Amino acid sequence: MSVAVLPVLRRHRTPVLLALVLLAALAALASVVVGAKQVPVTDVWGALFHPSGSEEDIVVRSLRLPRTGFGLLAGVALGVAGALAQGHTRNPLADPGLLGVTQGAAFAMVLGIFTLGVTGLNTYIWFGFAGALLASLLVFALGGAGRGGATPLTLALAGAAVTALLHGLISGLVLIDQQAMDTYRFWQAGALAGRDAGLLPQLLPFVLAGLVLAMVNAPGLNALALGEDVARSLGHRIRLTRAIGITAITLLTGAAVAACGALAFLGLIVPHLARALSGPDHRWLLPFAGLLGAALLLAADVVGRIVARPGELEVGIMLALIGGPFFVALVRRRKVVRL
Amino acid sequence: MRLLGGSAGSTAPKAAAGPAGARTLRTAHVSFRVRPRSVLVVLAGLVLLALFMALDIGRGDFPIGVGEVFRALLGAPENHFVVMELRLPRALTGALVGAALGLAGALTQAISRNALASPDTLGITAGASVTVVAAMVATGSAAGGAGGALASIGIPLAALAGGLVGGLAVYLLAWRNGLDGYRLILVGIGVTGVAANVKWWLFTLGDVNDAGRAMAWITGSLNARGWEHVRPLALALAVLVPLVLIGAFTLGALRLGDDPARALGLRVDRDRSLLILAAIALASIATAAAGPVEFVGLAAPQIALRLSGTARPPLVGSLVIGAVLTVGADLIARTAFGAVELPVGVVTAVLGAPFLLYLLVRSRRKAAL
User: Fold this and answer.
1) Residue B14: beta bridge partners?
2) ipTM for the complex shown
């Protein structure tokens, strides 16, 4: 893209939105079609709509479809949550895990394994979700406890401190407990494969609720970008706006990281990429970030399956190897929009 | 801090009381302001540092009282070997590493004007981790193993090279018609993300035992540090710290933004570059000596800022607080769990985070960076 294209795109946001929908759909299609076992597109179609019980059908329906579903869910959730986190803290270094959500989930899982001997993905996912909720409550309470209430700076610092504290505690626990270490290692890397398809409908309500809250939050977030005093004088209730935003971040990030692991890099870069396309208006930025997050995550997952045939490279690694250089190139061309 | 030169008329140092209890000291060529509260924070920090170091030296399998520690340090023959050869180098390494990270963090945060920035976000830690994990996997037990002198020299050198390359990569990629704090942070995110994931990928290649050793290194540890670690560290700090403190008089004006700083006569890009390069060098050297000790670079400047009540992270204060935090964390890491010795990097966050949170909750005014 040349330098002149982006501002033009920012004036025509509906076509760009449709293009992003198409991009995410293409990535999802590729995720169903591409893999270690070659399945022609026609057979994929058959497997989806007229299953006959063949080997191809089983591969597509029980492995690739859930995997694609988790990719869509986590990509949308982390993209939107990242945009919200950067908007609320007004800090380009903010990621969805900044408010303690990710490490809260990890700490609850590790603690569950260490003290109660929890095993099995389906059980400790709910431990992770509960930990995410508690950690973000703690950050919000601590960040808002000072005289000035919850400002972007106190939220960011309280989140960073709680995250570091939990990370230190996790490091201590996994040094003692080999089994917790093993689970944590794989969780930290992040993966879409091998998840139980039954979890998708269980997590979906949380993500949907988070997305609704995020869109409700968008006008308030736009006003907050002008500064708290201006926002207040425009009739916005600052505390309520912050509370809605943090609830949305927690629901989205909690569901995504409990199911698919940390994947921190996605929520960090996607909002910057989306902001380059949408401009700073959160009503557009949030959907852009969600679609771009899903497309990028699924694309990284597909490329990870191709480059290391017949094995795979983890999606988190592929994401950084593809997304990192692309992101640096974009930043160097001055195409990012400042917070 | 005054930017313009000293008042020409007065030759003898004289002090005048400024607002908020600050005093302005003037000599013929320079004038600077001294805030009593900042000085108090530095002095209290130094006292605490001495106490922590004495406790750190005293505790262990062979306990020595604080008084005896000081006597041994002053040259008494008893306990000389244990104090001077075994425990003092470790405590000194901790203090110097903490000081370097605290100062590097203060510089990074002041220049990027971002409270979440630290040497970790400049690609230094991630770069050093990549080269060290690569070196450990490549020379590991599967490849015949490199032990002894090669390991004790090679690993710090690999870390130094990796940290410098990572930091310089961020610096060079962020440079485009000048250096901008915002771009520096974003490029740092990208480079750190790539390097961190290359590190995790390298982890999966190696033998389990090598991965374990590498894991211990990337958590940051002061275990078995001797004079061979202290000397290069002390030499580097002796050169860099005075240079930074002299060069940092531009920080106050740089904080105003590019255009006001230029209007005040600064060469913005050059001044910012020199300070960032100094921060990269300080953090790389610290990481080479002890591994990436987490959270010190982020927390020390923020704690120092809140304790001394300044508008931006105070450099000397951050340096002292960084040293106190690291030595205090090492004291806990060595002694709190009996025979199990934790890496210091695990404890710095557990010790520093609650204190930073307490300062945040207690703060009576909106702090800004």
Assistant:
1) B26
2) 0.77
